[in-house]
Amino acid sequence: MIFNHLLGYIIFIILSSKNGVLSDGGRKSVRFAEEPEIKSFKEYDPADRINHPSRMIFWGENKIKTFYPEQPPNMLRRVNSDLGDYRRGKYLFEDPIISKLGQYIEKLSISGKIWRHVWKHCPVYSSVSSKKFILLEKNFCTEINLYRKLHGSMPLKLDPYLSTQALEVAKQFARIGKSSFRKNNSGVNCKKIHFTLAPLVVNTWYKECRNYNYKHPGLQPLASHFIDLIWRGSVKLGIGIVKSDPYLCICFIFSPSIKVQNKFSENVGKAKYHFINSRSFFMT
Fold it and tell me: What span, in angstroms and rounded, lies between the C-alpha atoms of 163 and 238?
């Protein structure tokens, strides 16, 4: 008897709960104990922790990132940054003199690319303050050998004996403005120039390649310096530098450099421009 009353009570509860859910024309309605919370979002809030306008983070000298709240994290803008100037054709130099000289070097030329590789970190004032000019001689030799490599010639080695001879020639050139040094198997080139323009000497001589006619190989006066620079038969180099404020007298001796008429085609080769794109081109 008690069991029947309990069963009837359970059935009554089930029917009552169904009647509460099925109402308003048989449509289901859901009731919440509390109203849902409405959250508003700012229109330009970035999805990161940086919400402060113009927050600046320093990564070192001249390298600053500025964060803007209206930009997402992957759209950061660099302000006064040196990065990316290489792709825009602007080369950055540490020495102010080299920076000014870089304006006179053709940006897109092969010779300009070699010049920048050699000289971009050279401190000119400290290089000429020393009487030995070791850094200048090293850079001259490196630049010459890169031009020779471009034309398929073997690199030259600095020879102490030739450098001693070149120094004497430079002293004579500083005194009287000319050289009496003559050797049948050597090529001698001298230049008197303001010390701030010294890094341009070899590059200026190399540009004489525009005057050389490969169709008619031979000794051509307008390209004589260029011929000495890349002559394949040369194996040794002597460099002499004398300071005569504010000028430098610079002498280069290439040996051997026997310029026989029928030897020009095999000793003055054309530039192989595809070499410059090789990763190993500037490795010495």
Answer: 4
